[in-house]
Design brief:
By secondary structure, this protein is an alpha/beta fold. It is built from nine helices and 14 strands. It has an eight-stranded mixed sheet, sandwiched between helices. Strands 4-5 form a two-stranded antiparallel ribbon. Bound molecules: adenosine-5'-triphosphate and Isopentenyl phosphate. Pfam families: AA_kinase.
């Protein structure tokens, strides 16, 4: 099983508002169609289709139902564009929206694995994304990043390959692209260039290390290489 996230920086312009990089999305769809991995779950970040809503409606500070729905609808719009591109290349995407299928309990993620299992059994590629998700403990809608979803799914499905495609070649440490990063490098990594409410590169690396898996962070231009088992970008090594 491969679980891979295409980052919001790679598929949208995070300095703008709802600006899609459609060429990147189509390229990813083409890459998947050419490699045809046997079992794949695709997760995507929401970039400028999600983060600006969280800022505008103060969704981390306040319970604003209109804001929750507007953020969710916009995330779904981006998801639909990705599914459309995949269909165009003859793939069978299966959209899964976390607002309906994931729950938080005091910040801890639970989800309906059955939906993913059945979709995979039927030959679909589940396509899910960062979203607003309900926390049943404090009855608050929270931002659930595609990074967290990727790691949760990767562990649940014991993925043999986990990847994060983004808009840079990998993780830079002391100004140089690193082949491997471990806990000792964390303090040297920065956040994000655009609007990001989920912590940027630093938090991505930290989440991977905390979850105890090994994962690659690489440029979306190397997506096909990643699917074909090339050692692209930076390996975040937690073991
Ligand atoms: N040391 C670093 N190495 C690599 N990228 C870094 C570093 N420090 C900061 N960054 C920034 O992190 C950004 C990638 O993080 P970001 O969270 O935006 O990724 P993403 O997963 O593509 O986005 P999203 O969370 O919207 O899905 C890059 O655009 C880069 O500018
Ligand atoms: C901003 C929202 C709603 C989700 C963030 O998900 P991410 O783009 O994967 O970090």
């Amino acid at each position: 099983m491969i679980v891979v996230k295409i980052g919001g920086s790679a598929i949208t312009d995070k300095k703008g508002f709802k600006i899609v990089k459609i060429d990147s999305i189509e390229r990813v769809a083409k890459d998947i169609a050419e490699v045809r991995p046997r079992k794949l779950i695709l997760v995507h970040g929401v970039g400028s289709f999600g983060h600006p809503f969280v800022v505008k409606y103060r969704l981390k500070e306040e319970k604003n139902l209109e804001g929750v729905v507007r953020a969710h609808m916009s995330c779904k719009e981006l998801n639909a564009m990705i599914c459309e591109a995949m269909l165009m290349y003859g793939l069978k995407p299966f959209p899964v929206h976390p607002l309906l299928t994931f729950k938080l309990r005091g910040g801890k993620i639970t989800f309906d694995i059955d939906i993913f299992e059945k979709a995979l059994e039927e030959g679909f590629i589940p396509v899910t994304h960062g979203d607003m998700v309900y926390d049943v403990e404090d009855r608050f809608f929270k931002v659930l990043s595609g990074d967290d979803i990727t790691l949760k799914l990767a562990k649940a499905f014991k993925a043999e390959k986990i990847g994060f495609a983004t808009d840079v070649e990998g993780v830079y440490v002391d100004g140089k692209l690193a082949d491997v990063v471990t806990w000792k490098d964390l303090d040297k990594i920065g956040f994000s260039k655009g609007v990001d409410v989920t912590g940027g590169m630093r938090s991505k690396v930290e989440k991977i290390l905390r979850s105890g898996v090994n994962a690659r962070i690489f440029s979306i231009s190397k997506f096909k290489g990643f699917l074909s088992c090339e050692e692209v970008g930076t390996l975040v090594k937690s073991d």
